Design the sequence.
């Protein structure tokens, strides 16, 4: 089913904003000066962060992977109340309270925008291609970048939404197992 | 929506410039909202995490045929989550497995107003005495079964002293249809 990108982004705008905030925050943590930030706009590019070149692969890894991890964790935490109700088949509580539904929408929106954009991936590739990187970090970065590239390709087939759904379903199970 | 990222002239010219960029006020507010949502989510999730843990304990007790323990734990879950289908079904199964008329009456009361899907019904059928199975009617156009209020009341009157009944809103369709059938 084809739905225009701007409509999807409008429906999931908190995810775009959270991604850009996390991007900016990780630039700050990596001590990479930020030039310009657009947190959200209606048409593509929906949000972006312009920053100076990253000095090394470590910084680039942090800036690219950090927002992905933040978004995944937020997606898992925010979708938990509704998935918890589903696991108990507590359908009455699901309908009667707006908090789990709102949190679920926020969580899925954030999860859908977990993956880095094209420019971020291009910058990341440049750093990976630079010689002299620490070998384990180089291997990890290459594998992560490959996953992100595949995820970007898969977004044509709603992979970003599927990913958010999977995080929402699997994370509570992991949490329950660790809790039990 | 673009923040002013121009460098702030430092009061001390020898101080190292800060690498932290500025965040507009509305972004700080948005961040606070997200943090509030995370806190609300954690607070809301906690009872479900506890209930899920109790469900596992009750399920393990039922598996070991310790139906009294299972019944107690399921009833504890139902105190906090009275509409939980998972807990109601588990509670009913633990009670039916005890094979006493009192327990059967309690189980039927717990199932009152439930819509049971095919998978759960297949599980319940194994422990539920046949005479009670007839009281559950298939819901039209759905692969679910439900028991009407009158059926459970008659069963509880017949088997135990308990007489009060309550019905959840989800049974209205099946109740109406069963009442019509009874009238006919």
Sequence:
């Amino acid at each position: 089913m084809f739905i225009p990108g701007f409509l999807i982004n409008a429906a999931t705008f908190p995810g775009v904003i959270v991604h850009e905030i996390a991007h900016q925050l990780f630039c700050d943590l990596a001590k990479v000066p930020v030039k310009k930030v657009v947190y959200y706009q209606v048409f593509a590019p929906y949000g972006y962060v312009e920053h100076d070149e990253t000095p090394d692969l470590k910084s680039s890894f942090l800036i690219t992977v950090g927002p992905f991890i933040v978004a995944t964790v937020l997606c898992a935490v925010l979708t938990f109340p509704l998935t918890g109700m589903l696991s108990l088949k507590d359908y009455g509580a699901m309908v009667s309270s707006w908090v789990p539904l709102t949190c679920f929408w926020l969580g899925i929106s954030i999860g859908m925008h977990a993956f880095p954009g094209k420019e971020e991936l291009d910058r990341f590739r440049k750093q990976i291609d630079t010689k002299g990187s620490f070998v384990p970090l180089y291997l990890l970065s290459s594998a992560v970048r490959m996953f992100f590239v595949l995820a970007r390709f898969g977004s044509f087939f709603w992979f970003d939404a599927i990913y958010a759904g999977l995080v929402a379903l699997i994370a509570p199970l992991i949490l329950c197992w660790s809790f039990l | 929506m673009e923040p002013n990222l121009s460098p702030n002239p430092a009061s001390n010219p020898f101080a190292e410039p800060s690498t932290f960029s500025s965040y507009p006020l509305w972004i700080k507010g948005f961040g606070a909202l997200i943090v509030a949502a995370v806190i609300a989510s954690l607070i809301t999730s906690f009872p479900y995490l506890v209930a899920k843990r109790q469900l596992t304990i009750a399920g393990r007790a039922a598996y070991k045929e310790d139906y009294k323990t299972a019944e107690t734990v399921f009833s504890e879950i139902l105190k906090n989550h009275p509409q939980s289908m998972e807990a109601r079904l588990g509670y009913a199964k633990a009670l039916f497995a005890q094979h006493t008329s009192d327990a059967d009456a309690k189980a039927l009361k717990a199932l009152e107003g439930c819509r049971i899907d095919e998978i759960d019904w297949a599980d319940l059928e194994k422990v539920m005495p046949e005479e009670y199975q007839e009281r559950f009617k298939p819901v039209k156009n759905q692969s679910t079964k439900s028991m009407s209020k009158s059926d459970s009341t008659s069963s509880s009157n017949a088997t135990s002293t308990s007489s009060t009944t309550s019905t959840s809103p989800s049974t209205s369709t099946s109740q109406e249809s069963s009442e019509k059938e009874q009238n006919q």
In short: The beta strands of chain B are 115-117, 136-138, 144-147. The CA atoms of residues 85 and 119 of chain B lie 13 Å apart. Residues 39-129 of chain B form a domain with the Serine Threonine Protein Phosphatase 5, Tetratricopeptide repeat fold (CATH 1.25.40).
